[in-house]
Amino acid sequence: MSLCDDTLLCNFTKCRTKLSGFAWVTACSHVFCDQHGSGEFSRSPAICPACSSALSGKLDIVRTELSPSEEYKAMVLAGLRPDIVLDICTRALAFWSYQVKYFSLYMYSI
């Protein structure tokens, strides 16, 4: 897996399925398939199954569409200042970098 790969894997230890459609993303930079995210994050308080972080903030867990429409992509950042857009891009790239590292560590451990 490289930073340019467009496939994420579920970070649930016993799953590791390729993600498509919808996924659950956490503030601690983990991502889960819709099935495991729905099950794990329906409990309160929510705990990340990958790192045991408490997820109590309003946006600590987000269910997101992995292939959003062109209309959504055209409007989601519209009106934001360039420095905010660049900050969002930086955070998104950091997430992917973390996932690449996480995948490498997982592959090394099996």
TrEMBL record:
<dbReference type="InterPro" id="IPR001841">
    <property type="entry name" value="Znf_RING"/>
</dbReference>
<dbReference type="Pfam" id="PF14634">
    <property type="entry name" value="zf-RING_5"/>
</dbReference>
<dbReference type="GO" id="GO:0008270">
    <property type="term" value="F:zinc ion binding"/>
</dbReference>
<dbReference type="GO" id="GO:0007131">
    <property type="term" value="P:reciprocal meiotic recombination"/>
</dbReference>
<dbReference type="GO" id="GO:0061630">
    <property type="term" value="F:ubiquitin protein ligase activity"/>
</dbReference>
<feature type="domain" description="RING-type">
    <location>
        <begin position="10"/>
        <end position="52"/>
    </location>
</feature>
<keyword id="KW-0862">Zinc</keyword>
<protein>
    <recommendedName>
        <fullName>RING-type domain-containing protein</fullName>
    </recommendedName>
</protein>
<keyword id="KW-0479">Metal-binding</keyword>
<dbReference type="InterPro" id="IPR042448">
    <property type="entry name" value="CCNB1IP1"/>
</dbReference>
<dbReference type="GO" id="GO:0000795">
    <property type="term" value="C:synaptonemal complex"/>
</dbReference>
<keyword id="KW-0863">Zinc-finger</keyword>
